[in-house]
Each structure stands twice: as structure tokens, then as C-alpha cells.
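Human: Here is a favour to ask of a fellow structure person. Comparing notes only helps if you start from a blank page. I am asking you to supply a protein in sequence and C-alpha cell form. Write it directly below this note and I will take it from there.

Assistant:
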Amino acid sequence: MFTTAELTDRQRKLNKTFLFMLKLLAAGGIFQLILHIYPDTTGLQVALAQQIHAITGFFGMNFQQQGIYLISDSARYYITQDCLGWKSMAMFTGLVFAGSTKFRKHLKYLFAGAIVIYIANIVRIITTIYLSEAGIISFGVIHGIMWKWGLTALVLVMWLAWYNFAEIEEEAHVIEREIK
């Protein structure tokens, strides 16, 4: 059996990649378990519908809100469980978990990331409704292509930014330990 000190640089990188993939697989297993359990999120959906209703009202859009529905003269929008943005938050959490050796040390970044994703998700819902109501772009194109991929891109960019920052921070700690 060898120690990590005996590994070549290439073997260390392969080991790091293997651990990343293993942790990402574990996070994916938890995600799949949540999907299988399918918890009742109606209360969260109603709360999000209320927030969207208040914000759209502020911008002069007239909707009626009935539970998880936002109703206009021309359409009825349904706030589903997927509208909560929880999958994007779970993806970001899984990537941070897989990419870190000290997960608890990065919780502040997870909370900040969740807030950014939540705000982006609200913007996503409001722009989807607005552009659809205005007839600028069809609901299917906005929802299915622009924002689904847009939110995924946001999560990946946030993770890459976090990962680069975490590596710089880790290198700074290593240099600090070497100086002492």
C-alpha cells in the first residue's frame, strides 16, 4: 500500500478526480432519493406564487393568485415543484461537496450561492411570464430553452468561480503553513 506522498503528480490528479466523481455520485444518489420520495412542497410553491404575484404587481402586471396559480386574462401559470429552483440549488451543493475536502468550511459559499440561485429563479419566472404575456417569445421557448439552460449555466459559472477561489484559498493556507 502506498501513501499519498509516494504518488506521482499524475496519480495525485487521478486520485483527486476519482474522489470528486465518487462524491458527486454520492450527491447524485441523495438527489435521486429526494426525487423518489417526492416531498410535498405545496406550501413553498404557494409562498413563491405569492412572491411572484407581489413582484409582478409592483411592475404593473395584473394577475390573480389562487394557491399555486397565477391567472391573467390570457393564461394560467402553475408554480410547480420544479419552479422552486431546488434542483439548481442541489446541483450547486453537490458540485461544491464533490470539489471540497472541508465541506463545512464552504457553507457560507453554499448559502450565498443558494441566495443567488433563488433570485435568478425569481427573475426567470417573472421574465418567462412577462415575455409570454407580451407575446414576444412563446412560453415553450422561454421556459424550455432559454431559462432551463440559463439557470444551468449560472450554476456551472458559480461553481467554477467557487472552485477557482477555493483552490487559491487552499494554496494561500499551504503557503502560510510553510512560512510558519
